[in-house]
Design a protein that fits this description.
The chain is α/β, with parallel strands linked by helices. It is about 40% helix and about 20% strand. It is flat.
Length: about 280
């Protein structure tokens, strides 16, 4: 039997757990109405499919809500722009807001910063729904960077005041490197480290666990930002494989490894982690 070590914080974070519980409550208590989710509830297709089997209707645009029926729309944990709330209100669509409180805090910070005429620097993936949503709270004016080299190629105005925030799941080391560079420019700078503490802990645990094992298995959605950051962290230290479910390990040869480490992204359900760990323990 293989020795399997599991990261303590693997699996659902507070924000995702809260969103999933809120959505489940709506589906169980309001069976007579149509419950929509604007975008996938979380970045885990297995969890989303489970809720869709319970009746959840995933849509890409508000226009897809059938207003001729009694319905409501869930705002997912990643959050959305202010314009989405305004559109829902103008159309009389009831909103169930499951935005992570840590993300909502960033909405407030950038909104206030924009009102104070500060230039907003947003660190993260410009195509990620969380970043798109945050940008929508400062009139889509944010300067968005993902990597240090992008920051270095930008021409900053020394007469302006800049406010820096980041995606909650950003790699801590990347964030620190970018802030160090920005501070070296002598800009008028206000920095808010908005990386979720759970993300920092999860990344540090993955880093430490990777040093104790012969291979790491990272469980989570292929489109999950925080999961892929864990993959990157682990792969820099030890052999690492990225999976969504135990089925993805069927053809992988674990015979040369006796100690296996396991971590999982913030959107990975417990049952998927448990099935994967069981598979590894029974591997012959």
């Amino acid at each position: 039997m293989k020795k399997v070590l599991i990261a303590e914080s693997a699996g659902f974070c507070f924000g995702v757990k809260r969103a999933m519980n809120m959505a489940q409550k709506e589906l169980e208590e309001k069976k007579s109405i149509s419950v929509y989710a604007l975008g996938p509830l979380i970045h885990n297709k297995q969890a989303v499919e489970k809720y869709e089997n319970m009746g959840l209707i995933t849509i890409d645009k508000i226009d897809e809500v059938n207003q001729n029926l009694d319905s409501e729309m869930i705002i997912r944990s990643h959050g959305v722009s202010k314009a989405i709330y305004d559109e829902a209100e103008s159309k009389g669509i009831k909103v169930v807001d499951t935005t992570c409180p840590f993300v909502r805090k960033i909405h407030y910070i950038v909104s206030k910063g924009e009102e104070e005429n500060k230039e907003i620097i947003l660190l993260g993936d410009k195509n990620h729904p969380e970043i798109i949503g945050i940008n929508g709270w400062c009139k889509n004016k944010a300067i968005i960077f993902k990597e240090l080299n992008e920051v270095k190629s930008y021409n900053f105005d020394r007469n302006k005041e800049y406010l820096v925030v980041s995606q909650t799941t950003m790699n801590e080391k990347n964030f620190e490197a970018i802030i160090e560079y920005l501070e070296s420019l002598g800009l008028k700078l206000s920095v808010k480290n908005t990386i979720c503490s759970a993300t920092s802990i999860r990344q540090q645990e993955a880093r430490e666990l990777s040093q104790k094992v012969e291979v790491m298995v990272v469980i989570g959605g292929k489109h999950s930002s925080n999961t892929q950051k864990l993959v990157k962290i682990c792969s820099e230290i030890v052999d690492t494989i990225s999976i969504e479910t135990k089925d993805d390990m069927q053809d992988f040869d674990f015979s040369k490894y006796s100690v296996i480490g396991v971590t999982a992204g913030a959107s990975t359900p417990d049952w998927i982690i448990e099935e994967s760990v069981e598979f590894l323990k029974e591997y012959k």
